[in-house]
Every structure is written in C-alpha cells, then in structure tokens.
Amino acid sequence: METRHLSNVQVSVIITCYNHGKFLKQAVQSALEQNIEELEILVVDDGSLDDTSEVAKLLPVRYIYQYNQGLSAARNTGIRHSRGKFLAFLDADDYFKPNSLHTNLDIIQNNPQIAFVAGSHEKVYEETGEVFVLNDTVNENHFYYMLQGNFIGMHAAVLYNKWVFDEYKFDVNLKMCEDYDLYLKITRKYEIIHHEKIIAAYRIHLSNMSSNYSKMLKAALSVLNRNKPLIKSVEEKKAFKEGVNFWKKYYTQEMINQMRLGKIKLDYYGLFMLIDQSPKILRRSIEAKFRSNLSVD
Length: 297
What we know:
The protein is of the alpha/beta class.
C-alpha cells in the first residue's frame, strides 16, 4: 500500500530496515501519529531476509527495495526518492514519541538558515523495560563539542533541511558512526539548533548493531581521525584529544559492563583496548575465565 501522491510534501520520514520486520509496524505507526498532513513515509529495505517486505506492503508507505549495501547506502537511497523539504531518519527498530516531530518542524521552519535541528531521546531497554532519558543540550560551539563526543546520540531526534544533502551524503564506506561523521562535517560549516525535548525512543536489544562496542569504538575513533583536517584552532585540537579519550573510556566501560554480565565476545581490537584502558579489570576477568564467559575471536 502506498501513500497518496503529495505534490507539496513537508516532511519525509525515511525508515531504513534490515531484518527488523517485527519492529517495522510500530516504527511506521509512530510516524503516522505525528499528525503532519503533508508527510510521506519511505521504507528502504536493505536486502532483508525476514518478512520486512510483507509487513511494509501492508502499510501506508512508499516501499523501496535494494540489495544489501549497508545503512549509509540505504539512507542515501531514501534521500534520492524523498520529496519532502525536511528529512527525518528512523531505524526500523526505533520509534518517534507522540507529536514530537512538530517540535523540530516548528523550530526549523522558524530558523530556515540552520542545517538541522536535533532534540533529545530516551533509551528503552527491551530486555528489562528500563527507560533512560538523555536530554543534555549544547547551545553553542557545536563543532567543538561534537569533537568531544556525539552529543546528539540518536539520529531519529534530528530533522534536516533537505538542501544539506545537495552538499553531503552518508559515507557508504562507513558501516558504523556514519551519522557522527555527517554531524562533524555539517557543524563545521553550518549552524544547527539542539534542544532538550524528547523526540524519539532508541530501543536497546540484542541485535543492535551499536551493541558491538569494540567495533563501535574503532568506528568512532576512525571518524574523528578522518575529520581531523577540519580542525582550525588550538581549542579544537584539545577537544579532539578529549574526544579520543572520551570514546575510549565510554566504550571500554560498556565492554566491562557486558563482561560482568557474561555477554561479551571480544575481537582482538576490543581486547587491546581493555588491556590499554582497564588492565586490572581485564586481569580479574581472565582469572575468573569460566564464570565471565569471556571469549576472543
């Protein structure tokens, strides 16, 4: 089922999906409940092997299939097919909070010079039902603070002016942290607005790509290094170093948390980072080898 043709689409919601058909209906429903009349919803199926296509074809969306190319390529496909003046990206396993897009839409319409507006989000842990709100805001020097870490955190909390994508696209060579890479490039050149209102919910579950903390750490540091040429001042150089340290500490702690729960499987990069950042904790874990269920690929 496809939405009616809209000649003057205000907002395009691009939902990317890879083997998350079981979550797709809720993601689409959360977009439909935004009560934005001139809204289109595009589902980009990145070569799913589950029932994504069957689910999507029963929903009021524009369904686009492509062979598996990764998240960046799927988002770029959505951009090419979108008709909206403003673009929002939603992963199929996440969802918008009720009437939240109006907050971003009002802000960006009243500030047409900004590249995007970003709100806050909440983390919802599917296994335990716990919910954590992340709503610290950055009101100035956005590139500087982005060097220190991705203060936006969730891509669905962002609403873009589509003209941004005349200049930038998601880098298909990045399998992770592609949004962080884009934020750095955009905030170096353009103004944005960041606010504390909750826009979306980020669902934490076992098949999250971002739960592979070793790979996420490697990707975050890679993105920082590839954007190092954008740095212009001594203060920004300092922020860059702080960002490197932040990502190492953040993902090392996440690996430690998983280790304590007996849920982690490390690659050699993750093992190296644990040795570098937390040698005492790693040693204790190795000594308790069978109890910790730690394995190395």
